[in-house]
Amino acid sequence: MTKVTICGAAGGIGQPLSLLVKLHPLVDQLSLFDVVNVPGVGADLSHIDTDSSLESFLPADDGLAKALKDSDLVIIPAGVPRKPGMSRDDLFNINAGIVRDLAVGVATHAPKAFVLVISNPVNSTVPIFKEVLAKHGVFDPRRLLGVTTLDCVRSNTFVAGLLGAKASKLDVAVVGGHSGETIVPLFSSLPGYSKLSDAEVDALVHRVQYGGDEVVQAKNGAGSATLSMAYAGYKLADQILKGLNGEKSTSSAFVYLKDDSLSGAKETRALVGKFGGELDFFAIPVGLGPKGVESIEYGVLEKVNAKEEELLKVAVGQLGVNIAKGTAFIKG
Ligand SMILES: NC(=O)C1=CN([C@@H]2O[C@H](COP(=O)(O)OP(=O)(O)OC[C@H]3O[C@@H](n4cnc5c(N)ncnc54)[C@H](O)[C@@H]3O)[C@@H](O)[C@H]2O)C=CC1
Ligand SMILES: O=C([O-])CC(=O)C(=O)O
């Protein structure tokens, strides 16, 4: 019996993500939680003739506890999105509290669940989640992932045109974090990279780093990326679900580095140290399997070129500040 819970299921990301998860053959129970509108979304999706059952919950009558109980995977796109002119960090004041409360729910009612955090600012909300789980004595770095998959999806799409490659066949590693200059796509190991001019690479990197802003501006006050994010969140959720089923895969995600029982954590910290900082979290390709994050694939950091090294130095400096802000929100 595999149960997936989506917190923030009635939102711009939550609705299409819930639809995609309702279609997943490895899901037996889908549980939707939101503070508004979720009964309607749940009723609508429940008519779909896939084999999973579906329940939806508002906060009243212990709704969060019921939604989360016995979940194997919890996906969190709850919280406010950006409007033009805002940074992801501007969302911290509202989203930090939302994520903290959901983390308390997970720690209490689904302590063994895998958790995918989509809510921004990811660089800070994942540290918040970690601190709450740790406070409750249930933190396992194998099971907590910040979702940075949209940066990989964008990298694949944007570089495909330039290289004449099929986007669906690419798997660009994106390291660092999930906001502006903390997003570092590693294009240099792609076949055909040497054909790109310096200006083309710079434009490509900039477009990935500010891909979110492109959508925020185009939506003009009506929110940020929702459909491409639902796809990206589903892509990672699919890998986690297949991992639970014994299938191994690799994906970039924002994960905890300070646990040496995690294969590759120590090496990653040492490499990140070379770029100027000591970080508790970092987005990097990870090996996924039945235990969740089974290894950190630090090899990508050994192959970066000079341009990427410069980008990494900038990213590491900013990430330290974002991570400390999230940690301090819980630890004081
Ligand atoms: N990690 C990533 O790559 C991306 C992250 N995001 C982030 O995802 C978040 C959600 O974005 P959208 O779906 O566009 O926003 P939205 O406003 O359309 O939906 C958010 C949903 O969360 C719900 N919510 C608020 N407080 C809640 C709580 N305490 N418990 C459960 N649900 C709650 C709202 O009622 C709403 O339905 C934002 O923070 C956004 O910045 C967006 C795109 C990409
Ligand atoms: O830009 C935003 O605020 C939403 C987001 O994280 C993205 O689209 O990458």
UniProtKB/TrEMBL annotation:
Xref: CDD domains: MDH_glyoxysomal_mitochondrial
Segments forming domain Lactate/malate dehydrogenase C-terminal: 148-329
Presence of keyword GTP-binding: no
Entry-linked InterPro entries: L-lactate/malate_DH (IPR001557), Lactate/malate_DH_C (IPR022383), Lactate/malate_DH_N (IPR001236), Lactate_DH/Glyco_Ohase_4_C (IPR015955), Malate_DH_AS (IPR001252), Malate_DH_type1 (IPR010097), NAD(P)-bd_dom_sf (IPR036291)
Keyword Amino-acid biosynthesis attributed: no
Annotated catalysed reactions: (S)-malate + NAD(+) = oxaloacetate + NADH + H(+)
GO molecular-function term, one example from the UniProt record: L-malate dehydrogenase (NAD+) activity
Keywords: NAD, Oxidoreductase, Tricarboxylic acid cycle
Subunit structure: Homodimer.
Protein name, per record: Malate dehydrogenase
Originating organism: Kuraishia capsulata CBS 1993
Lineage: Eukaryota, Fungi, Dikarya, Ascomycota, Saccharomycotina
